[in-house]
Amino acid sequence: MTTIHWLVGGVSNLQQLKSSNLASVRLRAACAANYLASQGVRQSFGETIEGAPDVVVVCKIGANDISVRGLAWLSEMRGARQRGAKVIIDYTDHHLGYSSSMSDFYRQALSLGDCVVVPSELMARYLGQCWQGPIVCIFDCIEYLPIAPRLVRQEKPVVLWFGHPSNLEFLVAFLRHHDLSDRCHALITVTDNAGLSWIDSHRSLLGVPRLTLVPWSVEGLSKAALLSDVALIPAGLHDPRKSGASANRLVTALALGLPVITHSLESYRSYREFYSDIDCDSIFDVLQNPRVEHPRVLRAQEVLLPEFSPAMLGCQWKRFLEQVGREGDFSCEF
User: Fold this and answer.
1) How confident is the model over 233-257, as pLDDT tens digits?
2) Which of 269, 219, 279 has its CA nearest to residue 244?
3) Domains, the chain, ranges and CATH?
């Protein structure tokens, strides 16, 4: 039976993996590892690779202490390859498409990888322009059960924004061009503590009548959604840092029962019928009467969410990793 090691920071067991504050780890590695565990697959976790696993999956490294951690991970990858492991890189942000603190790590890591897994077809196309090895696309999973759409406020809506702090600039840019001061009852923002601190210090940039700050957690986002009428998630439509981004925020908002106002990122366009486009649609009509969008939300929950179920995507990961471990074959078709 194939054995798997997940090369991941700050984690030594499956429960910690499932609690990671990195969405790319929770919605990908944790989804896969949890399914593999249910099937009896032997796995290990952490920044040190013990023994001789058949497959090493390199998770998102993150920017924290990257100069030291990057060298350590590259050394672990080289050692694993020498012991016969196949090295799979989970590539969730296009760090080779722009300059970031992680670009050098990924440039070197790709030279040691046997295959790359990406969250979207667009990311596969971008990566294919600068790396010639095999690329497999597996979506991010959804970590919420669907909640029925509802109306919280009878007049002006409560608007929810959630995401990584790197997305805050797109929220600010949206609010500069779309005055919500008289169009919403309140704005709830859900992000990590660094992002909340920034928002608290720049409240005047948001220009909304009431602002609620919620520290990110799976449970915290769910509770915030139950207090909201609409999800607002402006995106970096032309920002190279967001090239190939997955659809996880769109899908999450729909699962939480919220009409969605967003930009048409490439990974969103296949689901165009389920959201309101900031550049093309009458978004103020949505804010005035979110109820009219509830049929779209219900339809999305019926036909879209199954594509992102942990069971389906976990099964895809298992088939892929076991095929690589047994045969070194990267040609899986899902």
Assistant:
1) 999 777 766 667 789 999 999 999 9
2) 269
3) 3-141+309-327 (3.40.50.2000), 158-307 (3.40.50.2000)
